[in-house]
Amino acid sequence: MKKQTITILSILSLIATTTQINAQSIEAFEQSQTTVGERNPVATMPSKPPIVSNGNNGNVTAFCASILSLNIIDKSSSNIILGWASNGNFASITIRYALSGSTNWRTVTIAGNPNPGQYAITGLNSTTTYDIQVSTTCLTGLVSQWTHPITVTTFDEPTPRLTPIRNNTRISINPNPANLSTIVSYQVPAGTVSQLVVVNLSGREVFKTQIVSTEDKTQYTLDVSDFAPGLYFVRLSNRNGISSERLTKL
Length: 250
What we know:
By secondary structure, the protein is of the alpha+beta class. It is about 15% helix and about 35% strand. The protein starts with a helix and ends with a strand.
């Protein structure tokens, strides 16, 4: 009986020990899993980039707008007057120009607030072709792209529009602007041979003729129906000198 009691107690002790070991093993395992979880947390998805809204549930990209309607207002043998739309102000406006096809730019920066709408490039060479571009710096500090280049050729010396014929005889054009035709009038002695030339803003001749005056006052009907709309220079030259006036084709 005593032997059986000892055996039973031994079995119970063994069961208790085994249970304790199992409990410790389970606890250790759970701790090891927690530790692993802390050392290797689940990777989180990166946050989405911020969305800039334009107020209409759409995305916008910040940019600086360039000037609009870049054009040539006037030119001479050494100057070119640029013009553009004056709506909208900028921190500054930068103009660059170079011999056509060259990248050796000369750059000038002017104030853009208020927007002046024009700028005169001076000190140019006569009968020379230039490429001109413009860029803007907005009030936000952003800079626009360069405009598409405008190509223009300066006049020959002397500047026709600034060189009057002797005796202050100049040509007159009426109507001006013109759509189909216009009359070029001038006064020279009868028998005078004159050359009438029309050039566009790029300096290219679009019309040329020779006129022999039969009386002191000459009137020549100039057909402009085939001219593209825009600004032209009508130049008259003879033994008395050179005179030129602007003509607008509608």
